[in-house]
Amino acid sequence: MRKRGQRRLAADRAAYSVEAEWTEADLALLEELTRAEALLPQNAPRALLSIRLSVLTDDTTSPVRQELDLRILARERGSRVVGVASDLNVSATKVPPWKRKELGEWLNNRSPEFDELLFWKLDRFVRRLSDLSTMIEWSLKRGKNLVSKNDSLDLTTTAGKIMVTIIGGIAEIEAANTSTRVASLWDYAKSQEDWIIGKPAYGYVTDEDDTGKVVLVIDPEAAKALHWARRMALRGRSAGFMVRCLKRSGLMTQGLTVATLHRRLRNPALLGYRVEEDKNGGQRRSKPLLGKDGRPIKVAPPLFTEEKFETLGAALDKRRKSQPPRRVGGATQFLGVLLCADCKTNMTVQITNNTHGTYQYLRCRNCKSGGLGAPNPERVYERLVQDVLKVLGDFPVQVRQYAEGAEARKEIKRLQETIALYMKDLEPGGRYTKTRFTKEQAEATLDKLISELEAINPETAKDRWVNVHGGKTFREHWQEGGMEAMSADLYRVGIRCEVTRTKVPKVRAPKVHLRLLIPKDVRERLVIREDDFAQ
Length: 535
Prior knowledge:
By secondary structure, this protein is α/β, with parallel strands linked by helices.
């Protein structure tokens, strides 16, 4: 008999449906578990079930079986299931829990709704020690519990607490060792003539020699494109012309830009040298690394001779425009916020140099010739700032914070127990009914306790997100942070500004009109949400 393969056929995996996997027996068990759950007290712990599967095989536990097993575990623990975060076709190695579609939504935005996170097995939850350490740290901070059905992980047990300490220590050591190893490897690789690690410069690819050692060799297609570009540069053709031809021919990708082509043509790696990035002057350039003898380290056969490389550089210099120093944040302010009203693409600053001076224009990408150029971008920025401040400047800066209800729940429980005690002792024959004085005093105390209990807002007894006023308005916030802070907030919130350019007869500069597009829920979007899992 033909042996059955370990993995299902691709067609079977593609057609897999969780709903279709539920058998009548499974549904009957689910109904039984649901009925048992309905009998739990109101204050029963709330459990979130985490189900993950990268690839469904004959050896893996199906999502249905994982869910039923976890519901049984929840029943044994006396917990109420409040949700199921099912992430299928997701790799635990590549995607940590907080970045998964369903589980990530619960962890980042719905954490007040559950008390413990149940998963079938540790490798169904995470596969990286650092991710487990992060989740344990988050759970302790938020007062949550992590429970594995088939592993000894429970943060409330002694064994679980010991494991937390061990895992945290190992994760810190591993992170420090990894950082040291990577830095050491790069420092070592930079000083060697052999190719050890890194991405080859454009024009080269990695290959193996006869001994199996990794070496750099010339990429024929890239070499063809570079040599053609050199010939065009010597003929005085512009980089823009070369970019259009190279993209049309398919020798370089459609994402090629003039700046990228210049970087490739000026890269000393074309001489076979090992290089590193040099950001001096605000431009991305590469410089050769020198060996112990003071000479450039050669790691590959040269694609250009030194003479050809120098003549290429001289030809590019002849057509080079005298551009002002590159701004740290880019030439365009409010990038991604300012949009062309016609083609809906980003407005960017284009710099033009001629004999009369240097001029800046705001242009779009898809309109013919970039549309009518809007001169003086700074004036457009100023008008945008004024419009934004007029609408949003007085809004308070609020930060979303996690508020725990444990203290309020503890106080409510104390008051309820005390009230019950006083009510019992005020019954006929009780300790406070023996004299009129003790009865009046007990009744007064009881009224006070009841008033204190009624004064507690039930919402404060729940774990919840609250928006805390930062003590200043967005006007003050943006005055401190400048245009960069305003641009970042507008982009984050989803506020856009359409720019309309209208031709004016006998006037060179067009008339510019701005139209703010503000979402209806802008107040909620403006709330700053701190990321618990930020690296």
